[in-house]
Design goal:
Helices cover about 25% and strands about 30% of the residues. By secondary structure, it is an alpha/beta fold. It has one domain: Vaccinia Virus protein VP39 (Rossmann fold, 3-Layer(aba) Sandwich).
């Protein structure tokens, strides 16, 4: 079930603003849409599920890995409000520029990913980490960037997972099969 605040934040951050003109008319489709460079704007129902699993809260420090079009980053900014700090990271320079232009919240900042580095370790720790690309296995580098009691939602090995750091332990739960573009660490 999608949390009411997640659904409202998704409506507030109109998907059309984050899509290339040639697919913007398809914004209401519950399907991934191409945004160029082999990347997609994720299916809205998948975004809603991931954000609900993430359990965002006002004032959070959040990392959005593989931010692509910037849509999920803007939704996270909506959910966290102006007291939050949203750090988006994207590898494709053209998508970084396009998403910077589309995002209107000053507390949401899009960073150019550094090849070979996953996430933004220099800005860690984060209360929440959202990963919108498929890894082969649990991305330990991102787990290391979680704060105590932090939560990460990430797909790997064809499944959606929720990772929670609690009392010095890592708890991982499985939330079903999903398909995503691959999580890249280097420029293609």
């Amino acid at each position: 079930m999608v949390a009411r605040n997640v659904a409202e934040a998704m409506r507030t951050q109109d998907r059309r603003r984050f899509l290339p003109q040639e697919v913007a008319t398809d914004h209401e489709l519950d399907a991934p849409l191409p945004i160029g460079h082999g990347q997609t704007n994720s299916q809205p129902s998948t975004v809603a599920t991931m954000l609900t699993l993430l359990d965002p809260f006002p004032g959070m420090r959040v990392l959005d890995v593989g931010s692509g079009s910037g849509w999920t980053s803007a939704i996270l900014g909506e959910l966290g409000g102006p007291q939050s700090a949203v750090f988006a990271v994207e590898l494709v320079p053209e998508l970084v520029e396009r998403s910077r232009a589309a995002i209107r919240q000053p507390w949401v900042v899009v960073h150019q990913a550094e090849p070979g580095v996953l996430g933004l370790p220099e800005l860690a720790p984060f209360d929440r980490i959202l990963v919108s690309a498929m890894a082969d296995e649990l991305p330990e580098e991102l787990v290391d960037q979680l704060s105590p009691d932090g939560v990460m939602v990430a797909p790997w090995a064809g499944r959606m997972h929720r990772v929670r750091r609690a009392d010095g332990n890592i708890e991982v739960t499985d939330h079903g099969g999903y398909r995503f573009v691959p999580l890249l660490h280097t420029r293609f």
